[in-house]
Amino acid sequence: MSDVEDTGTAIVKAGADAKVANPGRAAGRGIGVRRAGPPGEARDGGPVGWPATAQYAIALVERRRSRSRRLMGWFALVVLLPTLLTAGYTFLVATPRYTSDFEFTYQTYKGPSSLATGLVQSVTGTAQNNLVDLGAIVYEYLRSSTLADKLDKELDLRRHFASHDIDWMSRLDDDSSREGFLDYFRSRVQLSQGLGGYIKVEVDAFDPAFAQTLAKAIVAAADAMVDDLTARARQNEVKFAEAELGRQEDRVRKARAAMTQFQNRQGDQDPSRAANQLGTIVGTIEGQLSDARGQFANAAGSLAPNSPIIVQLKAKIAALEGQLKAEQNRLASDRPGPGGTATPYSQVLDDYQGLQLEQEFAKNAYMAAQQGLVVARADAATKQNYLVDFIPPDLPQHPSYAFPAEATATVFLASLLVFAFGSLVLGAARDQMMG
């Protein structure tokens, strides 16, 4: 019950006692005594219950004092003690912390493509789109034990964070395990990933220069990790291009060897040229034969069949026809080959043209393989994925964590809210039980 209700109850009980002590005046005038005299005296001939009223008032005052003392005790325990401990720690004990923050994102470089690079990438598989969320990979890498161990080897993080110049609540344990070191590292490297794909990192240390150095080392390590993601693909692309160039070199050598063997076997460096010459000869003979036949037709109309001119023209026409037939047979019939065998000239030309096409294709493929190797090596030497720290790590000038005044005020307000809420809950529960 509340203090007001307790007071009313005490007054009611005191009035009841007064009625019992002076029933006559209580019946005539009601309860109570208008003017109290010394103890034991009576007014209007009857005793008054003044000692009982005083006892209840004293009990009420004692109850209020006891409740106030309990309330002040809880206030000191819940509010004052945490505030004083926080103030003492932050003002007198805590080592200042310095924060170097930076923000970065990642980019992907895509060089100019060509037919050769497209062929190489289609075979090696590097032409496929990168479906991996690179931002998520970088985020997890910054929280990994791999990065923590790498930075520990480079900067000796354990020695810095376990220094006895740091207060005992903030420093790393000298005999901390690998898991404990990782948890401590994560508490000093705070990450937040933005919607635009960028990542914000806040690095806490107990020295401003070391905080900046650690932040720069994190950027360099993350950049190297991103570059290594595509290093294997680029190396495989170079290996494939080198193997492809070797295959095309063998093809060119085989094509040249086959052409040389064919020419030596046929005894002719260029059968197509010889065929063109034979065709020219056939065409010339056909022209001469046509002229002779025209002359014979003109002379036959005016000269006797046995005239010398007619006989000469007939002999010339017969000779040209024989020569034309011989040359035509030379093109179409078999020609002597190695070992006395005969090969049709058309077959010789067909084999020669096939060897020419193979040699030309091998040459073009070899040139494409050379270009592909040059491009693959250029891609391997160029970073395709890299980080861009558009807000580089800064050098902190002032402590950025646990300001004494701010920390003390925060703890005081939080403790006060907890105390007020607890008092309301306990008061409501007590009233419910007594009601």
UniProtKB/TrEMBL annotation:
This is Capsule biosynthesis protein. PANTHER family: FERRIC ENTEROBACTIN TRANSPORT PROTEIN FEPE, TYROSINE-PROTEIN KINASE. One of its GO terms (molecular function) is protein tyrosine kinase activity. It comes from Lichenibacterium ramalinae. Keywords: Coiled coil, Membrane, Transmembrane, Transmembrane helix. The chain crosses the membrane at residues 71-92, 407-429. Signal peptide: none annotated. Residues 27-48 are annotated as: Disordered.
